[in-house]
Design a protein that fits this description.
Rossmann fold, 9 helices, seven-stranded mixed sheet, binds S-adenosylmethionine
C-alpha cells in the first residue's frame, strides 16, 4: 500500500480532482466541508476552549491540514506512505508527521484528544479494520473522540468517482453501519453517524439542510464518530503532547 500512494505524493490533489471533475466542484470544496463538520463534532463532543490534540491516521500529504489545523493546538499525522509523509512535512514543517508499517501506531496510549481518519479505511483490508479502529482507540485518551470519514457505498456518484480514481483499484468501501459496529466491538461508546456532501454549496442554508438529513445515507460521504469511555469526562483534556 505504501508504494501505491508514494507514487501520488507529488500529484495527489490532481488525481483526486480528475476522479471528481464530473461533479464540477474543486477538491478544496470537499476539504472545507469535511473541516466544517469536524469542527462541529469536536465542539459538540469536546467543547471549545483548551488545547486539543489530534492524530490524523492516513493523513497522506496532509491535504486537509490547512483546513483543520486551526481547530487544534497539536495536529499530528501518520501514514504508511513514506513519500506522502515527507510531502506533508515539507508543506507544514511545524507538524509532527511519522510513517509506520500500518499495524501499531507509533504513539503511546491515551496521547490524543481526537483520532481522525479520512478516506483511509477503504484501502485497509477488511480483515484488518478491527485492529485499525482498536489502534485509534488506544492512542486516544479516555473521554476523547474517534472519527472515521469514509465514502458512502450507497451513493451512486461516490461509486462512480471511486471507479474513476487511479489509486482506488483496491478499494473495499466500508458501510457506515459496519463502521459503527467496529466502534462498538472496540469498546467505544456514544456512536453516531452523519452523512454529508449532498449539496454542492457552502451557503449556510445548504449546510443547514444537509445537517437536517444527515441521518439518511444520501451524501457522498459520512462521518462515524464515538467516544473512548474512561474515568475522565468528555471535557477533560490530555496533558500529554504528541
Ligand atoms: C485516499 S488517501 C487519503 C489521504 C488523506 N487522509 C486525505 O483525505 O487527503 C489514503 C491514504 O491512506 C494511507 N493508508 C493506507 N493504508 C493505511 C494504513 N493501514 N494506515 C495508515 N495509512 C494508510 C495511504 O498511504 C494514503 O495516504
Amino acid at each position: 500500500m505504501s508504494e501505491v500512494f508514494d507514487a501520488y505524493a507529488g500529484n495527489y490533489a490532481d488525481e483526486v480532482q480528475a476522479s471528481i471533475d464530473f461533479a464540477g466542484l474543486p477538491h478544496d470544496f470537499y476539504l472545507r466541508v469535511k473541516a466544517l463538520l469536524l469542527a462541529e463534532v469536536v465542539q459538540q463532543r469536546l467543547g471549545i476552549g483548551g488545547a486539543l490534540s489530534c492524530l490524523d491516521v492516513g493523513c497522506g500529504v496532509g491535504a486537509l491540514h490547512p483546513h483543520i489545523a486551526p481547530l487544534f493546538d497539536h495536529l499530528a499525522g501518520v501514514d504508511v506512505s513514506v513519500a506522502s509523509i515527507a510531502e506533508a512535512s515539507r508543506r507544514r514543517p511545524a507538524g509532527v508527521y511519522r510513517s509506520y508499517d500500518g499495524t501499531r501506531l507509533p504513539f503511546e496510549d491515551d496521547t490524543f484528544d481526537v483520532a481522525l481518519t479520512v478516506c483511509v479505511m477503504h484501502h485497509v483490508p477488511p480483515g484488518a479494520w478491527g485492529t485499525f479502529v482498536d489502534e485509534m482507540r488506544r492512542v486516544v485518551r479516555p473521554g476523547g473522540l474517534v472519527a472515521v470519514i469514509e465514502h458512502n457505498p450507497f451513493n451512486p456518484l461516490t461509486r462512480f468517482a471511486v471507479s474513476r480514481c487511479a489509486f482506488d483499484a483496491d478499494a473495499v468501501l466500508l458501510p457506515a453501519r459496519r463502521a459503527a459496529n467496529l466502534f462498538v466491538a472496540s469498546g467505544l461508546t456514544r456512536v453516531a453517524v452523519r452523512h454529508f456532501l449532498l449539496l454542492p454549496s457552502m451557503a449556510r442554508a445548504a449546510r443547514l439542510l444537509e445537517a437536517l438529513v444527515a441521518g439518511m445515507p444520501l451524501g457522498a460521504q459520512y462521518m462515524a464518530f464515538c467516544m473512548k469511555s474512561g474515568s475522565g469526562d468528555d471535557l477533560r483534556r490530555s496533558n500529554r503532547s504528541p
